[in-house]
Specification:
alpha/beta, seven-stranded mixed sheet, four-stranded antiparallel sheet, about 15% strand, binds 4'-deoxy-4'-aminopyridoxal-5'-phosphate, binds glutamine
Length: about 375
């Protein structure tokens, strides 16, 4: 028998994330897994060859703490070209082990005991625990039920003297909605002359459809001075398991983010950074993403159209929401479980991304899958 010491959990209400739960359920029931967001097609062989090359070259020891200079320079160039502003590799860019770690470092760097962070829900599930672990208080604001857009009046009304940060996410996981230029203008207006930072989760920056431009805080002269923008190579290069990303922020914020980063992980996988620096030299390696994923979105929507599920408009990300209001009044967690067990198709219930577990009767399906997988999934949906 083990002796146990008393330990009061810092996150007593937090269990295993829905992504692990649904992927495990999919495996247990041999179901098609459109739940956790990851592609089922291969990473570019050229990129893999570059990693192999750099490993054989001996690039196997610690990389510099803020990230390999060659990679930060490529990122700086990419951001400068895309957002029409000069970003500096040394002052503004830090390479992190994935987007989640970048979000965490940004929150730790800024948030103190009792400070409030406005979180727009449904929200990626790492935000609130990261805020709470640092003594902060998440203040949830729901996206509008009708169209999953941000109600900026509600956000403005939630700002108090304790508000220190607002977290935004565009393109938005799990709804597939995007922020427009006018959204950023409203955000800039409501935080003007207030000590409020923006944490902008832009990991799906290149997965955006119908010719819409990605509205980054980095392109907004006023917002970029108070923002930390988070990106993930996992999403951009179909390699979620590599856990490599970066955060772009003004020099005074980057300095503080790096203090956290250096003691959280110190540095990121070296051969991968060399390989990514090479691969980023060719912009079409990421500029081809919107068309690539739009074809998948369109195919999945076309295949699901004859079903009784209703398609919620998807403007970005590789997630499609389907409403089952006309089919069942089960709560979405039960609906997702039933679909997995009885029909061998796993999805994500979105109520888990709301602190009040709001029910919208929609499930999230990841369409970063081969056309064959999408066809099989749609066949299942059309039978229900
Ligand atoms: N933010 C959002 C909205 C995401 O969907 C993800 C992907 N899981 C992340 C951040 C984290 O990215 P990474 O896998 O690079 O940590
Ligand atoms: N971001 C991915 C999703 O939304 C999964 C992240 C994870 O598994 N932690 O499905």
């Amino acid at each position: 028998m083990e002796d146990t010491l008393s330990l009061e959990s810092k996150l007593p209400d937090v269990g295993t994330t829905i992504f692990s739960v649904m992927s495990a359920l999919a495996q247990e029931h041999n179901a098609l897994n459109l739940s956790q967001g990851f592609p089922d097609f291969p990473v570019s062989p050229e990129l893999i060859d570059r990693i192999h090359y750099w490993m054989k070259q001996g690039a196997n020891q610690y990389a510099p703490m803020p990230g390999l200079p060659a990679l930060r320079q490529q990122i700086a160039k990419k951001c400068s070209d895309a957002y029409n502003h000069h970003f500096d590799a040394d002052q503004h860019i830090t390479v992190t082990p994935g987007g989640t770690a970048a979000l965490y470092a940004a929150i730790v760097a800024v948030i103190r005991q009792g400070e409030e962070v406005i979180v727009i829900e449904p929200a990626y599930d790492s935000y609130a625990p990261a805020i709470r672990l640092n003594g902060g208080i998440p203040v949830p604001i729901g996206l509008r039920k009708s169209d999953f857009k941000v109600d900026w009046q509600k956000v403005a009304a939630a700002i108090s003297d304790n508000t220190r940060m607002i977290i935004i996410n565009t393109p938005h996981n799990p709804t597939g909605s995007i922020l427009l230029q006018e959204d950023l203008e409203q955000l800039a207006t409501i935080i003007r002359e207030k000590d409020i930072f923006i944490l902008s989760d832009e990991v799906y920056e290149h997965i955006i459809f119908d010719g819409e431009p990605h509205q980054s805080v980095l392109a907004h002269a006023e917002l970029r001075e108070k923002s930390m923008a988070v990106f993930s190579f996992g999403k951009t290069f179909h390699a979620t398991g590599w856990k490599t990303g970066y955060v772009v922020a003004p020099a005074y914020l980057t300095k503080e983010i790096r203090k956290v980063h250096q003691f959280m992980v110190f540095s990121v996988n070296t051969p991968l950074q060399f390989a990514l620096a090479d691969y980023l030299q060719e912009p079409k390696n990421y500029q081809s993403l919107p068309a690539f994923y739009q074809q998948k979105r369109d195919l999945f929507q076309q295949l699901v159209k004859p079903s009784r599920f209703q398609i919620v408009p998807c403007k970005g990300t590789y997630f499609q929401l389907l409403s089952y209001k006309q089919i069942s009044d089960l709560p979405d967690t039960e609906m997702a479980e039933w679909l997995t067990k009885e029909h061998k198709l796993a999805s994500i219930p979105i109520s888990v991304f709301f602190s009040d577990k709001r029910q919208d009767s929609v499930l999230r399906f990841c369409f970063a899958k081969s056309d064959e997988t999408l066809q099989k999934a749609a066949e299942i949906l059309c039978k229900i």
